[in-house]
Batch of 3 targets.
Target 1
Amino acid sequence: MYGACLVTEHGRMAVCAADEHDHHCFHAHFLLFPGTQDVSSLASSYFAQTIEFPTLSAALNDAALHPEYLLTSPDPSRLFIHSTPLNTPRQLARFLVAWKNGNPHLADWKVWPQRERAVSIANTLRAAFVSENQC
């Protein structure tokens, strides 16, 4: 529907600033970036370890072993688990995608939330996923 997509997911990472921290930061956040470039190599520079996996299940099995991690996947057969963070900035995946696409000002979700667009896209994807799995 949107062409190639970059998939990211981070789990158990304190990605909020200390004074704004919420408990929701410690559960997994799955993000989908349609039509963007791969940021896996950029992401690896923020972590002490990066391992590539051929399947989502293998990647998530490895992710479960780490207290903090970031998953990046430029396509369904290339998934990376980045672990042992080295001073990761807030909203790392969003920051890297915005920077790579030449729009670093779009990285701050509080300044550019685009909530209506995000809800519309989520509803479209949800409908496509549900109808595809009901066949």
Note: The radius of gyration is 15 Å.
Target 2
Amino acid sequence: MLNQLIVALLSSGELAGLIFLLRRVTKVQVWDERWHAYFVTANQGWFWRGVAWVTQPKLMVGWCFLLAVVQWSTRGWLGALGVLAGLGGANVIGIIIKHTLKRPRPVQHLAHDDGYSFPSGHVLGTTVMTVMLWQLYGPAWWLAGSLLLWWGLVAYSRLTLRAHYPSDVVGAVLLALSWLSWLKWLIQLLGWF
């Protein structure tokens, strides 16, 4: 339980530090734009758009409900509630941060990628689902490799499609790890599992 608290505190502090740097240090924005230009490619074809479509936040909610049904049938209502709280809480916090920071998207982003940039909703949802699937069904090497590959494809798609800066991806990962660590710590504290 102490490990969860340490991870929660560290990832929350790193996320707060990143947000502070993005709001207060202009050199960080310049660095972010340079790295973003490095990842952007001319290839914005069907594959990368498909990866982005499958992991869009609205569809990720559907994947989460499917996983919750599986958890309900195997672990009961607490397992289902844990899955729903994992993605639901992360999304609520992500939306609050997006509308508080109001960071614009990179130049030349696709028209359907509207709204604010930080944190990436696609990467946030994918990171939450990846961590939950690993915690529920790991530690098989093939599962770890598959989840890591899928996460990498989603993260790269958000960069190459010009939807996000690298710090948006990093911020989404930090938010997901922070929220899931706090949630797991709370669940352990309450003795639900």
Note: The chain is about 80% helix and 0% strand.
Target 3
Amino acid sequence: MDEIDRKLITLLQANGKKTLQELSEEIGKPKTTLAARIKKLENDGVIIGYKAVVNPFALGYKLLAFVLVSVRRGAAPKEAKPLQLEVAEKVLAECNGEGGLPYVEEAYVITGPYDLLFKVWSRDIKQLSTFLVTYLASNPDIQRTETLIVLEIVDDWRRRVMPPATTG
């Protein structure tokens, strides 16, 4: 990845709707060159997609929480998925903002005293409470949880541009 690729990535993160003409003018390279580089970045998995970035508050979500989850310990069959992954995938699939459950935007398998971290958007405290007290508590693979409610968002991925790491 060279300086042109890094500029492309930075510009497209800031505005994925930029035209090849606009990119060409800002970077100073021909449109055909940039189109080929973008295609290569996509094929290499550097650029993984394009989508509209929405404001969760504008969609009716009023509460953001991070939920730490401890999963039951036990030996899984050799070819089975780790239990942490199974639990995380189930929560992501079922908690899509419908049916009274909140929207789980992100899930991570983590180190430390907990196994999973969920980023949870709720319409209100009642919906978050249902998620914690009814939904998660009914899963026999979940041993305990800890919930952190966000009071103020200082910044998040929706507003930030990740600079490509440089080598050397």
Note: The mean pLDDT is 93.
